[in-house]
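User: Structure please.
Assistant: Input sequence and predicted structure:
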Amino acid sequence: MCAKQIKHIAIAGNIGAGKTTLATKLAQHFNWKVHYEDVENNPYLADFYNDMLRWSFNLQIYFLNSRFNQLLEIRRGEDVVVQDRTIYEDARIFAPNLYHMGLMTERDFNNYTTLFDTICSQVGPPDLLIYLRASLPVLVKQIEKRGRGYEENLRLDYLKRLNEYYENWITDYKEGPLLIIKVDEVNFADKPEDLGKVISKVDAELNGLF
């Protein structure tokens, strides 16, 4: 019954917070479809981590286009979809962080922001946003655990600034229902009982949407 009332669940969180893992496990439990972030096939990601100034705009445009297409597909389809990272994070977290760190020019940032605003006028927010709040040590531990080569050059100050942007964004998030999961306190990846707690919270939020 719940699945008929919603179409779009989105998971937000910093690099290494566990978005993909949680999206997969929720999809398995609720029989949802998953739209993953395009990481493995992203033609800009490795170049970006090696030279952020050169490739930041290209990378952000690629992600923006990818997530816009996901949202259009969700709108056209009949399935309930859980989305790994939101379109808001591109524009509210990553692009402004790159700009303020001097890794994206003002011209590119303004161009990007204008395009984002145009896209957002054509799509709506998720029916439920799940934010994975994680401390810097937990993020670093989980990034090291998954061992993606292109993430080896990630700087701690970069992750820290992203976390600050995330917290500011979530504090002001008013677009729709929001569920915050404290990753430091639950290990939904490895402990079934912790996953059960998260599923119960998600279920409670969804039951309140109709």
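Residues 2-41+71-90+125-207 form a domain with the Rossmann fold fold (CATH 3.40.50.300).
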